[in-house]
């Protein structure tokens, strides 16, 4: 390691960094793929299993809740025993749950295995972020987290695209077999190419040894709590769209599964644009992530209000599609800033911090997003209303809890 390296990752070669980005990105994508790959199959599940749209949406909610709860277990566990063991065991559990989901014959069994799938997939997101924080700090941390934020924001949007293509060659059960194979590839990559980033001598730091101390250090940080709320509200708005979009665009607007997948491909450009510009502003132009949030959260409010008002005004499909793209782009702007602020000050309990952040994102989103289904998916109004309310809460959290002027500047 170079003598000038202040963090272990500073000594990695360019090739090693690229390898870590690819594998950690694959880990991060496991959760969103598990949650969203089967979205285009919702109408098929509804008819084949003889259940309501709300019952199908509950399997999505169950997956997200399992994903959120799993992160609360895996994160602190990885702070105590290291990163690789929890990662490999949890991902192995995910593979078994995928097999169970593929073999389910009714909505109840499918729902149970979906919860277990979410629980097992939780390790990927938490451990990937914790590993990055183990290796990097300051501006290099911004750059690496932006790559993971790109994956975590892009994967939920790309997953339905892939799912719609898979449905051309297999039924909905095949999607779960594909997820099982993906999990096997992840385990193999981690086993052969990822080293333990949390050595044994760094797992016990004064004031950070016990689970209670780690949670106290993280939850006692006002700024962390505030940005966790912003992240949870942003994900809730995004998943309100994801959970209802299959019914909205396929049943209301008459899209085929492949046209629905193409729509998601276009919207994915919004995530890419937001994440890349946010990262560039932080890394190259020294714009504080808190000030990026001050803009992106307002855009979330404006675009969700535009969808609501345009739909009520009879603007039709394009009245939803155009502002929706900018809403998704604003989500891309928000996610890297949330992760950087949340993890930058918690190197000693990175796994715990990452787990709380992820649990808030997916757990809260899992509870809020089905509200759209309760009010029906006959138009864009319920979706836009939930998106707007979550955006307003994010704005309030930024200015009343985080308080941007109190956020410490990033080290270089």
TrEMBL record:
Descriptive protein name: Bcr/CflA family efflux MFS transporter
Domain of life of the organism encoding this protein: Bacteria
SUPFAM superfamilies: MFS general substrate transporter (SSF103473)
Source organism of the structure: Cryobacterium frigoriphilum
Pfam family, one: MFS_1
Main localization, broad class: membrane
Entry GO MF terms: xenobiotic transmembrane transporter activity
Database matches in Gene3D superfamilies: Multidrug resistance protein D (1.20.1720.10)
Its membrane topology: Multi-pass membrane protein
Subcellular location: Cell membrane
Keywords carried by this UniProt record: Cell membrane, Membrane, Transmembrane, Transmembrane helix, Transport
Span of domain Major facilitator superfamily (MFS) profile: 17-406
GO biological process terms held by the UniProt record: xenobiotic detoxification by transmembrane export across the plasma membrane
Transmembrane domains' residue ranges: 18-39, 51-73, 85-103, 115-136, 148-168, 174-195, 223-242, 262-279, 291-310, 322-343, 355-377, 383-402
PANTHER family reported for this sequence: MAJOR FACILITATOR SUPERFAMILY (PTHR23502), POLYAMINE TRANSPORTER 2-RELATED (PTHR23502:SF132)
GO cellular component: plasma membrane
């Amino acid at each position: 390691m170079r003598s000038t390296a202040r963090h272990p990752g500073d000594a990695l070669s360019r090739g090693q960094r690229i390898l870590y980005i690819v594998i950690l990105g694959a880990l991060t994508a496991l959760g969103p793929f598990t949650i969203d790959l089967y979205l285009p199959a919702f109408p098929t599940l509804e008819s084949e299993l003889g259940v309501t749209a709300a019952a199908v949406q509950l399997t999505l909610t169950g997956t997200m809740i399992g994903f959120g709860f799993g992160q609360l277990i895996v994160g602190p566990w990885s702070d105590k025993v290291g990163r690789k063991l929890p990662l490999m065991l949890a991902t192995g559990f995910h593979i078994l749950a995928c097999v169970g989901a593929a073999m389910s014959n009714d909505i109840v069994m499918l729902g149970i295995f979906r919860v277990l799938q979410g629980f097992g997939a939780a390790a990927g997101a938490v451990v990937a972020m914790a590993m990055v924080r183990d290796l990097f700090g300051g501006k290099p941390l911004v750059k690496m987290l932006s790559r993971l934020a790109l994956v975590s924001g892009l994967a939920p949007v790309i997953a339905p695209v892939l799912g719609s293509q898979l449905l051309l060659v297999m039924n909905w059960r095949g999607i779960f077999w594909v997820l099982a194979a993906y999990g096997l590839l992840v385990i193999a990559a981690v086993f052969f190419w990822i080293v333990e980033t949390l050595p044994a001598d760094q797992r016990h730091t004064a004031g950070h040894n016990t689970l209670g101390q780690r949670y106290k250090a993280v939850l006692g940080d006002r700024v962390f709590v505030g940005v966790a709320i912003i992240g949870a509200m942003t994900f809730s708005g995004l998943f309100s769209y994801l959970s209802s979009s299959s019914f909205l665009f396929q049943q209301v607007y008459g899209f085929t599964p492949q046209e629905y997948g193409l729509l998601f491909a276009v919207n994915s450009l919004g995530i890419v644009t937001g994440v890349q510009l946010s990262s560039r502003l932080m890394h190259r132009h020294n714009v504080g992530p808190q000030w990026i949030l001050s803009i992106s959260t307002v855009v979330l409010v404006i675009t969700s209000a535009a969808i609501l008002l345009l739909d009520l005004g009879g603007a039709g499909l394009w009245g939803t599609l155009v502002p929706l793209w900018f809403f998704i782009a604003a989500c891309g702007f928000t996610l890297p800033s949330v992760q950087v602020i949340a993890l930058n000050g918690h190197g000693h309990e990175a796994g715990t911090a990452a787990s709380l952040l992820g649990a808030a994102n997916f757990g809260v989103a899992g509870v809020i997003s089905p509200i759209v289904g309760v009010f029906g998916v006959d138009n864009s109004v319920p979706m836009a209303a939930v998106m707007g309310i979550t955006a307003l809460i994010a704005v309030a959290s930024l200015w009343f809890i985080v308080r941007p002027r109190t956020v410490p500047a990033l080290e270089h």
